[in-house]
């Protein structure tokens, strides 16, 4: 038996699988996010430990036999968070999360530092870890002076589980301290961010054993005494493992809270000027590139909040298949945007609204705006040399047939919808645990899920959506000029 843990922003999920990768059981525990100021997003790392304990105890209570046969576990975690610990390993302050934008000025300074983009392979975005530490140095100097080490969220949890201070490669790649080509900490990047290599944990690959689970935790959770804890990975890298996207040409689109298009790469080919992220994969000697938009299903959630209708109800107002783009358009920049604009200040809006438009028209415009934003990301990925002839579609937004068909029409590629089952980050983590503990070949473990159906682009609407996309691309500079005035 093997365990995959998915440390998300709002909760932790533990998945128990057998040695074939088949799901046996799962348990979840939630926690909250704190927003103490505008643009701030923080979490108490103690909540992750409590949630992990709760989920593991639930599995132990309901499935004692399988839990007693667990050989290894691995963790997927949300990226970029900064957990600052003192010389005893205790957190000095709440974790500053990936969606925290307080360090936008520090990020801009780092990004403008000669050699930084070249060394990291990425623009330094405000959500990355390095600018967060510069902010702490400037705004909380007493805390900064006590920082003995910095952990990413899931690596902090690994330290709790094993006592080992490690940093897994795919997660570390999003810190702006890692040389992604060399897969090692960069002296130039650390110096630019005011950090020291001694404050960095030991680097490991996602399939490498980090340590052995603490004996007291193993006892409390009904696990064997020699459970290995494997490196795991950053959430999107591990989700790629869950859907078998680890070799050149494979990729997925995620319609989640944020929107992601990920392309697996066999080589390291960064092009930071595109605002595409280039990171180490959780699999050794592999990389991945992804475009990121900050508000995908979050845009529909927002519309639901202001119309008083749940997102699912808004989706139900629309037919299964679109007949063409809406006359209204929506710019999905509710929290700024990453790819391709790298603009934390831009904000969204509707254009072309008519007095006859109602909630259904606005829901359609929101779904199309998200699809157009993802098309921006796909075009940026193509500029780096990534080629994606089809995509696996995952995330909560794929429950909407209208949204899926719209996305296929806008992207111009077939979308494969997985059959019911486990294929997300928790499954990817379990697969990493299997490979790390047994030495199993990645190709035999990290396979594609069964596909329930494929959604092909409606070629009769290609011209209409191309015209609508052209109008969408003109929206950003117009909004930027207005909001900057």
From TrEMBL:
A Pfam family the protein falls into: FGGY_C
GO BP annotations, alphabetical order: D-xylose metabolic process; xylulose catabolic process
HAMAP family: XylB (MF_02220)
Span of domain Carbohydrate kinase FGGY N-terminal: 1-242
GO MF annotation: an example: ATP binding
Protein's UniProt keywords contain Repeat: no
Record-stated family: Belongs to the FGGY kinase family.
Protein name: Xylulose kinase
Site (Important for activity): 6
Residue ranges of domain Carbohydrate kinase FGGY C-terminal in the record: 252-434
EC number assigned by the record: 2.7.1.17
Residues bound to substrate: 79-80
Leading EC class: transferase
The reaction(s) this protein catalyses: D-xylulose + ATP = D-xylulose 5-phosphate + ADP + H(+)
Record-linked PROSITE patterns: FGGY_KINASES_1, FGGY_KINASES_2
